[in-house]
Amino acid sequence: MERSSDYGAFMEKFVLKPSSSSHELPLNGLTFAVKDIFDVNGFVTGFGNPDWARTHSAATSTAPAVLAILRGGATCVGKTVMDEMAYSLDGDNKHYGTPTNPCAPDRVPGGSSSGSAVAVGAKLVDFSLGTDTGGSVRVPASYCSILGFRPSHDAVSTAGVIPMAQSFDTVGWFARDPVILNRVGRILLQLPDVDLVRPRQIFIAEDCFQLSSIPNNRVSQVLVKSVEKLFGGDVVKHLILGDYVENKVPNKRMYLLDLIGFIFYLKRRYEFKNNHGEWVTTVKPDLGPGISERVWEAIQTTGESIDICYSVKAEIIATLTTLLEVSIPLGMYNDVPVAISLLAKHGSDGFLLNVVETLYDTLQEQIAISE
């Protein structure tokens, strides 16, 4: 593997031509790569682990998400490295190596869609496909200073994609250019081109930004000034997220937030065990540090411990899956990538893609001013 030329991003390289060469197709002339969790006809889907690849046959069909992109006119140039079994956010892989973060080579690239993010960040492809269960597109996008989009749950088909935890799994994508991010999204989401609808409100969660050690003028103020310039100052609303939650569920702020996090981790473990427990206990794969512990903890999850999830109100559990999110790069601070995330309600994917495309250039202008 030529790590110096491809930053260690690729598992294997090949060329899948688009199904049509029409110049009118929205992705004509663009190249992309896919995380090694997507089925591609004739290739083994490796799931980031050589024991998995050794014990599974080549795919006999291609994932619908990949086919949709090919029909949109793009050319696939290979499969990318990922964290083993998608069970990490770091981006390292003890078997295939850790892809090199192109904007911060001494830092991890983030995972589990590490190679897909690096391939875009290093300008090896125009965009790439990954998956996001608990941050596996959003985290590497922020680490590699590129755009990363997690869509509404179930908005993009996950058929032909190895499941991690179906209640949270999504097909996401990376790009450097917000126009390309939007085009790819409209293909995957099967959305028509529509004009931007002006946001009525953009909430700034002040208590979340207070957790950051990066100066306010380099993060939240960049967003606020950009929004005010494009949409007017009346759009921006400031709130304390903790207080907002407490008002919705009086006297239970910490309980609710802790409960949501607990349910996420518990359901993810339980679904992972249902999906892969038999294979793990039979094959006993060689797994890297950290991932091995998480996998075996999941395998030991009991049916009794999942019962709590079904005793919680459905609307609380729904908060885990309804929000969609995009990570937007805000340049570098002290040689470390900085990013900000925008969240929106379920089903507003096209709206959020348009907002990002509209905001992006103004954000870059504000970054330059703040520096």
Automatic annotation (TrEMBL):
GO MF term set: hydrolase activity, acting on carbon-nitrogen (but not peptide) bonds, in linear amides
Boundaries of every Amidase domain copy: 22-177
Source taxon at top rank: Eukaryota
Stated family: Belongs to the amidase family.
Protein name: Amidase domain-containing protein
